[in-house]
Write the structure tokens for this entry.
Amino acid sequence: MMAMSRPLGRMVRCSKGVMAIETALVAPILATLALGAFDVSNMLSRQHQLQSGANEASEIILAAAGGAGIPSGDLEDILESSLNLADSQLQVAARYRCDVNAALVNAPPSPPGCAATKPVYTYVQLTLTDTYTPMWTSFGVGEPINYNVVRLVQVS
């Protein structure tokens, strides 16, 4: 019995190779966490790009309303190229509101819906849409993330 317990005792006390075993157990977990953090930073970066693009578009719309003038088609082209968006991912549309009515409509309101004495306010609605597919969806975890950024800018 004693003869067998000695080699077993030596093996239990031996610390050679412990670091290799610990690394083999921890490295895949750390790599997965690092890739996940990278993917989350890409998602946040895209959201920030779209928000910044919408803010820039709002400024351009306000400048155009102040007299600088830019056709909506040119505005769309500028934004699509700077944000790397397809035509279907960007919509610029006019919206209107009568006096204090909260509802926005697609055409300028006229009587009887809006009395001639009531002011009609004009807005430009900018909608940016995009989809980001995280890498972990290829492993069956989660699903693509849809972005929808809407800006409503009053121009008159």
In short: The chain has one domain: 14-154.
